[in-house]
Amino acid sequence: MRRARVGDRAAFEDLYRAHVGRVYALCLRMAADEVRAEELTQDVFIRTWQRLESFRGEAAFSSWLYRLTVNVVLGALRAERRRTTRVKAVGDLTALAPVSNDPVAGRAIDLERAMARLPDGARTVFVLHDVEGFKHQEIARVLGIAPGTAKAQLHRARKLLQEALES
Amino acid sequence: MSHPDFESRLNDYVDGVLSPQARASTEAHLEGCEECRVEVDQLRALLRGTASLPRSVQPPHDLWPAILEGLDEPERRRARAVWERRHVLAAAAVLLVVISSAVTTLLMREQSGVGEDRFQRLPPQFRPTAAAYEQAATELEEVLEAARDRLSPRTVLVVERNLRIIDDAIAEARSALADDPASREAGEALARRYQDRVDLLQQVGRLLARS
Predict the structure, then answer these.
(1) Are the CB atoms for B151 and B145 separated by under 8 Å?
(2) What whole-number distance in Å separates Cα of residue B42 and Cα of residue A160?
(3) Which of A88, A140, A166, B89 could form a Cys-Cys staple with A150, CB 3.0–4.6 A?
C-alpha cells in the first residue's frame, strides 16, 4: 500500500490482484451486466490510483475501496440511459456459480438471476444491504434518499425475489 | 399477506433491528399467526441464500493491461495539452515575426524615403508582401482557432469584433490604394491597418501564453 501510494505500479498491481474479485462481484451485481461490470471495475481501479494519496488509513483499505466502488458504479448507473443489455447479462451470470448438480449452487444461480431482474433501485439497495452489509443510514446517504425509502426499497426487493424464486 | 402492514415489521424483526418492546409484541403475534411465521421463514431462507453467495468473483478477462493503460491516460492527456499549447504558441510566434517583419519593412521603406522610388512602385511590390501577409495571417488565425477554447467567450467575441473592424479598414485601404496606386497616404494607411491586425494577434498570443 505504501509503495503503491508513492507511484509503484507493481505494488498497485498486487493491490489489484488482491481485491479485483470483490470489486468485480460488486460491480456485476449492481450493474447486472458482465461487460459493463468489467468496464466499471477498470474505472474503479483507475480512480483508486488517482485517489490513493487521499486514503488516510483510518479504515481498512478494503472498506475504502468498496465504498469507492459503490460511488463509481452509482455514478455510472445514473449517467446511463439504456438498460437493454440486462437480459443478455442474466444468461452470463452462470459465471457466478459453478455448473454442477449441487442444488445449493443451482439456487445460487437462481438468486443471482432473480437479483439481476430486479428494478434498478431495489437491486441496488438489496445488493448494498443484504449482500454487502451496508446499513440503511449509509445506503440512504450514498443514494441521496431518505432512510425510510431505502428500507422500503429493500423490503420490496426481498418480496420480489421471494416471488421470483417461488415461480 | 392478510395484514400487509406487518410486512415491514417482519423484515425489521428478521434483521434484528426492532426495539425490545416491538420484538416482544412481534413474537407474541407470531405465536398466533401461521401466515406471518411462514413469511419469517421465507425471509430467513432468502437471507441464508444471500449470505452464501460468493463475495469474490474473478472477471472473465484479466483487466490489468487496460487498467495500466488507463493509469497513463491522464498524464498523456496533460502532456498532449502542454505540447499542443507550446506548438500553438511557437507557431503563432513564428508567424507573428514573419508578419511583423514584412509590415515593418514596408513602414521603414516608407519612412526612410530611400524607397520613395520603390514607393511609387509600391503597389506592385506591395502585392507580394500583402499576399505573404495574408497567407501568414490565415495560417496564424487557424492556429489560434485551434486554441480558441483557452480564451474566455467574451475575449473571443472582442477579438472577433476587432478583427472585423480592422478587416473592413484594410479592405477600404486596399481599395483606396487600388484607385490611386501612387498615393503615399493610401500605402501608409494600408500598412498601418496591417500593423493593427498584427498588434491584435500578438495580444491574443500573449493571452494564450498566460492561460
Answers:
(1) no
(2) 12
(3) A140
